[in-house]
Amino acid sequence: MTTSEHIDAGKERSTEQNVPRKVALIANCLLNQNAKVCQGAHYAGPVSPVVDALRSRGYQLLQLPCPELAFAGVRRWWAVYEQYDTPAYRAHCRRLAQAIAPLIERHIRGGDEVILIGLDGSPSTGVRFTSSQPDWGGRPNRPEDDWQIVPRPGIWIEELEAELARRGLPRVPATGWALDMGRFDETGARRDLEEFLDARARAAGADPAPP
Amino acid sequence: MSADARGWRIALVPDTLINQPKATGEAPPDVLRVLELSGYGVLQLPPPGQHSLLLAVIADQVAEYAHHGYAVVAIGVHGQSVDGLHWRRLAPLLRHRGVALPPRHLIRRDLDAAAEMQRLATFLTGYDLPMEEQHHWRV
Is A8 contained in some domain? Predict the structure, then answer.
């Protein structure tokens, strides 16, 4: 199947759908905090500041699968990048990427503006930052804050970006909601996200202020 | 890290209710806001089309939740040829994973939006697992 056949395999776009759209790929837990590890959630359900910032600027939402939940379950321990950096977990992430990539590809090939909002500090969904501690393992009794934040994407984002690149798609502009950076600062995270979104609007010549 | 804030309740929601088509008249019902206010997390279902692998991935996630003390519901759209839930394909995937089909609530777009959102809120608020299951699983 060629790329265009692959793209056209879904339902034909309606007239309204032919108008270029703004689409935000968002980490699973930004719509569903139940995906977080125990004590990792800050909201009952959706992360409303993220949802509000995106919707008020006209973005449609496309939720990504949660790789950790589907791999290690709802009762998993906290973990860092190095613990998930295994062939089996990367293969799992590639399967998820292959599941969601056709939808993303359709948007990009259709001329939609696509961005990615991940979860900075996450071992899987970090965009700019992930959590790292090469010594973690064994009995889960590490002292608090015994990990580092390092400037690199998480495993899931690495594999998703690799799948999109395999399809010949351009890199998706991305940022992360700083939920997993150790101490969560909602005001700072909101300001950071809005600056990212408004900078994109300014670059496109649009009014960055939400309606 | 914070105290545990998870809501323990999740809704399967069609793409069309998350990314609502532009209406010419009054504002469409804001299902996402009602879910948020009701403390439900969202699992977004894809738009119409072939999504076999993605639906299997979603079914895996639903099974994990359903087997570990989370209440799961499905919100569809009444009166469409499909309710947006991919039910014909999703239901067997859930059964295959030993998951009882979640209760479904259908939104009617031909009725007053505010009244429909109130009906949805009542449904969401009124649903949860039996108390003994909540005590067994939830921290």
Answer: no
